[in-house]
Write a structure and sequence with these properties.
Length: 641
């Protein structure tokens, strides 16, 4: 080589090394200003067209989000290789310039696996799942061999069993997953999310290498699908094989113990966490609080929470939900107020728990929390919105509940079920059926809870034909086998309509013995329509199921009274006295200025209750004088004493 050329190349190498070092410094200190100064020097000395330096600057500007700068650098590069295009493609996709990225991808003279992976990942991040799968097929047609990253992207977007099995088959043909523990773990997660627990175990059994993430994925899949005891068995097997659980393992099995409501199992897990030092982890502590709460040991949940002496959002969420679950709404609100003073920003789970805890309180408190939800920007969150809908429905304010539901952007099945049940409980059964029709047209497929709530609406509204049509098509149209709650609704509906024979026919087709509530519906129907013989048989069956219940005697006595069989009435009342049965007293609640007044059927539990009855008596006298009512005062007076 000519000495001059050799000297020139040496100068260029030193320049490239110098500027590469400066670019690395920009990466480390994350300084856009310094990057712009160095870039200006490159342009000044004429090195901005060098491929290596240009690629580094595209990557640098992409990290800072200044895509227009990256575009200028890309245009200045004299020779653009595949690395230049891949870096620029990633930068465009990272900051949402999808159209530009697609144009660049289509114009690329050559594409490697990085190019295809970037584009598939871009489709997924933008929510274009079908296009991502289509592009994956194009990649295979172009004879580009997918790698582990390709499959990990695809497994993150799979939503049906058919696609999952196709991807798994491609992985087997490529031979990439048996020796790749990360891909094996992803397969277990994928099958767990799709409910294919058998396939998850097949993947687990064929993996050449296992790690703690593998076990966690399998245990989590079992818990998610309701196989709680199977999850605990895998945990025991994991420890027997010498694998040490981590914080995620313990939080998962704590949740499993919580679902089982087994205090003995929970104590064992708590001991393991204490011994391993996991109680400093907030996720484990939150799972511990939930476990004790679900096992009806709220005092232990409170003790765990208080001993931490810190205000963490996850711990506060668990404690708020625990108080709400046990009916201590005021305590839940108290903790929530403390979280606001401790700069512990509430999230959607906090607000949902708080809303649930005040569902039995006044509308004023609900409106205050609702205002806070709007202020914090969570009104569009499906979980919080569903809790608000449920709260307003529980206190009888159905119109605000409908308004919130209508304004929800994305509605999951929980949202639909909440408004359907709320409308039903508030007597808006016609609107319930309208919402159900909208769900069938626009929403996710209904589940057993949806159908039970709709059948309840048909029951309340006396819609026999509609209820029978829904009940008869449950398995065929919706893939839901009728459960006890569905049979109870449809039997009660038929009995209220006087179709006792049809109700008995349905009871005979049940795959299991009808429960007490179903027999109760049939007995009520017998009482309404005077079916004495059938009522006696039903009452006898009910006393066999629940010998301690006085309901069959009371209803049968009413049937005898209606038919004039007074000897039967006397016999039943004598039997009830011998059994020591006591009549249950109904009660109601009235909230006045944040104070809850409880009214029993035979008294008023309130200081000065006798005075209230005196005022009520005066009002009744005035109503009688005006000709509105005609009541006997002695009965009211005796009740108030």
């Amino acid at each position: 080589m000519h000495p001059f050329l050799n000297k020139t190349c040496s100068i260029h190498r030193k320049s490239l090394s110098y500027y590469s070092h400066l670019i690395n410094h920009c990466f480390s200190i994350k300084s856009l200003d310094l990057a712009e100064v160095i870039h200006a020097q490159l342009i000044k000395v004429g090195l901005n067209g060098y491929t290596f330096l240009g690629n580094r600057f595209i990557d640098l500007y992409s990290q800072f989000g200044t895509v227009e700068y990256a575009c200028n650098v890309f245009d200045d590069i004299s020779y653009k290789n595949i690395v230049s295009r891949n870096i620029y493609l990633n930068g465009l996709l990272r900051f949402g310039h999808f159209d530009g990225a697609r144009s660049l991808f289509d114009e690329m003279p050559e594409r490697d696996i990085v190019s295809w992976n970037s584009m598939v990942s871009g489709y997924v991040s933008c929510g274009y799942f079908d296009q991502a799968l289509k592009l994956f097929m194009e990649m295979q047609n172009a004879s580009v061999r997918p790698n582990g990253f390709t499959f990990s992207i695809l497994m993150s977007l799979v939503s049906c069993a058919a696609h999952s099995k196709q991807i798994h088959g491609s992985m087997i043909r490529s031979g990439v997953y048996l020796s790749n523990v990360v891909l094996g773990n992803s397969l277990i997660n994928m099958y767990g999310k799709l409910g294919l627990i058998d396939y998850a175990f097949v993947v687990f059994s064929t993996m050449e290498e296992l790690d703690i993430v593998t076990w966690n994925s399998l245990i989590s899949a079992c818990c998610r699908l309701g196989y709680v005891e199977l999850a605990l068995n895998q945990f025991c097997l994991m420890r027997a094989l010498g694998y040490s659980p981590d914080e995620y393992t313990m939080s998962t099995v704590m949740t499993a113990g919580s679902d089982l409501q087994s205090l003995d199992v929970g104590k064992q897990f708590f001991a393991i966490c204490l011994k391993a030092g996991f109680l400093s982890n907030t996720i484990v502590l939150s799972a511990t609080i939930d476990l004790f709460s679900n096992c009806n040991r709220l005092e232990d949940s409170v003790r765990v929470f208080v001993e931490q002496d810190r205000w963490d959002s996850a711990l506060c969420n668990s404690m708020i939900s625990s108080y709400a679950r046990h009916g201590f709404g005021e305590e839940a609100l108290r903790i929530f107020k403390f979280t606001l003073t401790k700069d512990c920003r509430p999230n959607e789970f906090t607000l949902s728990s708080v809303v649930s805890s005040i569902s039995g309180f006044t509308g004023e408190q609900g409106s205050q929390v609702h205002s806070l939800v709007v202020k914090l920007g969570f009104e569009s969150d499906a979980l919080v919105a569903s809790s608000l809908v449920d709260m307003y429905c529980n206190i009888g304010l159905i119109d605000p509940a409908i308004k919130i539901f209508t304004g929800m952007g994305a509605r999951d099945l929980i949202s639909w079920n909440t408004i359907i049940l709320g409308l039903t409980r508030n007597g808006r059964v016609v609107e319930t059926l309208d919402v159900f029709e909208k769900l069938l047209r626009k929403g996710p497929p209904p589940d057993r809870i949806t159908l039970a709530d709709v059948l309840l609406a048909c029951n309340y509204g006396g819609f026999v034909d509609e209820g029978m049509a829904i009940f008869s098509s449950m398995k065929e149209d919706y893939g839901v086998m009728p459960g006890n709650e569905h049979y109870a609704c449809i039997v009660d509906l038929l009995c209220r309509a006087g179709k006792l024979r049809e109700a008995m026919n349905i009871m005979e087709t049940m795959p299991y013995e009808p429960g007490f509530l179903i027999w109760k519906s049939l007995l009520r129907g017998c009482a309404i329509y005077g079916e004495v013989n059938l009522a006696e048989k039903v009452a006898e069956r009910m006393t066999e199921l629940e010998p301690q219940s006085s309901l069959p005697y009371m209803v049968l006595a009413r049937v005898y009274e209606m038919c004039g069989k007074w000897e039967g009435v006397i016999r039943l009342r004598t039997t009830m006295k011998q059994k020591g049965e006591k009549k249950l007293i109904g009660c109601s609640h009235v909230v006045i200025k944040n104070y809850v007044y409880t009214f029993n059927a035979d008294q008023l539990l309130h200081c000065g209750g006798k005075d209230i009855y005196l005022v009520l008596q005066l009002l009744i006298w005035e109503m009688e004088d005006d000709g509105y009512v005609n009541l006997k005062h002695d009965k009211l007076s005796s009740d108030g004493e």
